[in-house]
Design brief:
Length: 115
């Protein structure tokens, strides 16, 4: 089953859920705003993404620009920051077994789900 790390106020995240639903793909929603990831869960997601933590940080987000831009922050510190501030995590993140991807563009999601 596909898992979707989701933020209900994100239009791209909502579009992915709509696509999955319309195409009969079974999925589980993990609302990261209501149920933030733990450090261990976030590390697991990063491993499945096969990407550095910088890949999932929303650098255009107001909170990032006001508090974190230009600062030298270690990966361990970022893990804690993202767990405490899930709005800074790129979304949606689609997880299928041992692999994951950022859920955009939607063409990539279609390919990911079919394989």
């Amino acid at each position: 089953m596909i898992k979707v790390l989701h933020n209900g106020s994100c239009s791209k995240s909502n579009a992915i859920l709509e696509y999955l639903d319309e195409n009969g793909v079974q999925f589980e929603i993990i609302n990261i705003m209501e149920d933030p990831l733990s450090v261990l869960e976030l590390k697991t997601v990063l491993k499945k993404l096969n990407q550095p933590i910088s890949h999932i940080i929303r650098k255009e987000e107001k909170l990032y620009l006001e508090k974190f831009a230009g600062k030298n922050i270690s990966e361990e510190e970022w893990l804690k920051i993202l767990c405490e501030n899930p709005s800074l995590i790129q979304r949606p993140i689609i997880i299928k077994g041992s692999v994951a991807m950022l859920g955009r563009p939607i063409e990539n999601v279609k390919f990911f789900i079919e394989k």
